[in-house]
Amino acid sequence: MSSEISIETLLTRRKKGYSLEAPFYTSEEIFKLDMEIIFGRHWLHVGVEPDVPEPGDVMVVDIGKTSVIVMRDDDMELRAYHNVCRHRGARIILKEKTSVGNLVCSYHQWTYGQDGELLFAEHMGNDFDRKCRNLKKVHIRSVGGLIFICLAEEAPDDIDRMAAAIEPYILPHDLKNCKVAKTVDLIEKGNWKLTMENNRECYHCVGNHPELTIPLFEYGFGFAPDGTNPKRMEHAAKYEALVQSCHLGWEAAGFPSREVERLTDVTGFRTERLPLDGAGEAHTKDTRSASQKLLGSITERKLGALSFWTQPNSWNHFMSDHIVTFSVFPLGPDRNLLRTRWLVHKDAVEGVDYDLNRLTEVWEATNQQDADLVEISHNGAISPAYEPGPYSPYTEPLVEKFTDWYVSRMSEHLLGKQAAVGVAAE
C-alpha cells in the first residue's frame, strides 16, 4: 500500500456500490489488519461437530499465526484452546486430527486435562503454581452442529441471535448425527475477500459453472428485468410463484424456508431454502439425491437446498441427503485456503448408500472453477490499470452487502463507531 494513502482514508472514501480499491486486495499492511480485526475479533466457522465425534477427538485449526485445538471432552462438550504449551510455547498437538486422553506437550511432557488445567510439570520446584499455567481458552460455539470459534478476549454476543434464528432451519438436517465423507483443502491464489465476493454472486455462473448450474434455476441467482423478452419475464414470474409455493409446502411440513437476512450484524448471516431444477433433490449432475440414506428424520427427498452464509468466512448448503460446508482461511494477501466438507448420515455406507465421486463431483469442479476466477481477479487487482468497478444492482447486491459489512467492521475498529456509521451511510 502506498505510504501516501492511509487505510483510514481508503475506508472513508470508499464508494458504495463499487468494488474496493486495490490495496484492500494487495496490501500486506491491510492483510495484517484483516487478520487482527476481522479474523481476530469475529466468530469464524471452522468445522462441524462430526469433525470431533467422540470423547478425546481433537482437531487443529490454523488461522494466520494462531493455532487452535478444538476437542470433544469426556462429557461430550466442545472445548477450544490455543495450541501453545504454557512452558516454552511449543505446539502441543501436531496432527490436524487425532484422539487423546489428556493433552501432552511432546517437548517436556507438560500434561493438561481436557479442561485445560495443567496436571503435570516435572522439575519445576515446590513453589511452582500450576494454576497460573493452564491452557489459554478460545471461545467456541456450536450452531446446529456447525462449529464457530472467536479469538478475541470478548466474543461478540450476537451469535446467540444468529443461533436462535438459524437453528430451526438447520436442525432438521441433524448435522450432529452425520459423518464427514470427504474434506478437500484448495489453495486459491487471491485475496480472501475476492473469494467471498465471488461466492456472494452468481452473475458469473452461466458460462463458468456448467456442473453447478444443472440443478439451479437461472432466476434463483440473479435476474435483470431490463432488456428481456416477455417469455423470460413469464419464466421469472413462474419461478417466483414456485418459490412461494415451495416455501408454503416445506414450512407446513416443518422445514423453515423463507429468507432471513442480517448480513449487517457483527455476526452477519443469511439463509433461505430454494427449489432446485430437474428432480429437485440435490446439487448433483442428475439433480437426484447423492445418498440413499436421508438425514435425521427427513422422509421427503425434494427439499431443495437450504443456503446458510456467515460473515466473514463461510457458506453452507443443506439438502435432504447431504450437507456441504465451506470455510475460508487467509494465508497471505494473495492466498487463501478454502476447506470443503461433504457430510452424509453417519450410518450411510460408501459404495452402498452413496458413491463418493457422485457426491462430490459438482462442488469439486465448481471450487476449482471459482479458484481460477479468484486468481484472474487478483491478477487484475495488482495491475496499475485497476480501479473499482460498479456492482450489478440485480445480480451483485449481496457482494455489496459483504463489502459494506467488511468496511463497516474495519471502520468501527479503526475510526470509531460513529465514523463507521457515517462511512456505511455514504
Automatic annotation (TrEMBL):
Q: Which cofactor does it need?
A: Fe cation
A GO term, aspect molecular function: oxidoreductase activity
The record's annotation in SUPFAM superfamilies points to:
Bet v1-like, ISP domain
Superkingdom of the organism of origin: Bacteria
Query: Which UniProt keywords are given for this protein, alphabetically ordered?
Result: 2Fe-2S, Iron, Iron-sulfur, Metal-binding, Oxidoreductase, Plasmid
Record bears the keyword DNA damage: no
Q: Which InterPro entries match?
A: Rieske_2Fe-2S, Rieske_2Fe-2S_sf, Ring_hydroxy_dOase_asu_C_dom, Rng_hydr_dOase-A
Domain Rieske positions: 43-149
Ribosomal protein as UniProt keyword: no
Q: Which PROSITE patterns match?
A: RIESKE
PANTHER family per record: CHOLINE MONOOXYGENASE, CHLOROPLASTIC
Question: What is this protein identified as?
Answer: Iron-sulfur cluster-binding protein, Rieske family
| Species this chain originates from | Azospirillum lipoferum (strain 4B)
Which taxonomic lineage is given here?
Bacteria, Pseudomonadati, Pseudomonadota, Alphaproteobacteria, Rhodospirillales
